[in-house]
Fold this protein.
Amino acid sequence: MTGPAYATFRPAYRYVSRNELKLRVERALASLADCRACPRDCRVNRFDDKWAACKTGRYAAVSSYFPHFGEEDCLRGWNGSGTIFFSHCNLRCVFCQNYDISQAIKPGAAPVAKPHDIAGMTLQLQAQGCHNINFVTPEHVVPQLMEALALAIERGLDLPIVYNTSAYDSLESLALMDGVVDIYMPDFKFWDPAMARQYSKAPNYPEAARRAIKAMHRQVGPLVFDENGLALRGVLLRHLVMPGGIAGTREIMEWIARELGPDTYVNVMAQYYPAGKVSAKEYVEINRHLSAEEYEEAVAAARAAGLQRLDGRSHARFL
């Protein structure tokens, strides 16, 4: 979707007053004292540097930041997506391909990034010509992210914000991001609570993801592009196809088409491979690569559900 209405596009946060940003930062930081940033609902006092499931206290930890050329074409463009990877995670996916920074790293071992540090990263990436600022795994650090963005915006940040998430987000966190995030990029991982319990240690994941993705869609709507094919605003939904159909691809695709609409932009991802803890004997059933037949079945399920906007790069690369 393109059009003249987006020729003079400005990031959403440019329409938010400085006073409103200040109030959101205050609300976000207050929530750290009784943390409910994600559906784990741990209620610990992270403001005093305590932590629970996410292993993150008062300040976020960043593992790396750089122009990323491995994202979808509409994000990476020709100068890359300005990607900032947060350490730790509120899920425990046994197959995580970033296991070294999401789970294996010990609390306190990753470099702490204070608000001015994160703000500086966004401005460096902007100066390098990146098309957007892409926050990866932000679910557990939304208060810290809000604090950093307020500084970055004041210092001249002027790129679309991409919220790159597992969709294990709380509605309270998403309310803080409303009018600040331009592009939501959730991954809908599992349909069945039993599968979510087994492979991500979060049986409430499917319910939480459905609730969060609907809230994201209400905020920004379907994905729209500029005249060069770069994403500007909307939901770009990812789904990782898993061996043996354990993710519930057909049910997820039908839900997307029914609840969000057939014009939802979906990346049916084929890049699953054994990683993380899948070599352990209790996960032997997913200790293999995805077959071409399994991936084709997943794409066929998306089309059968009526989804009309499927990202073509995963399909082309897999085949």
Summary: The domain at 4-318 is CATH 3.20.20.70 (TIM Barrel). The first strand starts at residue 60 and ends at 68. The radius of gyration is 19 Å. The chain has eleven helices and ten strands.
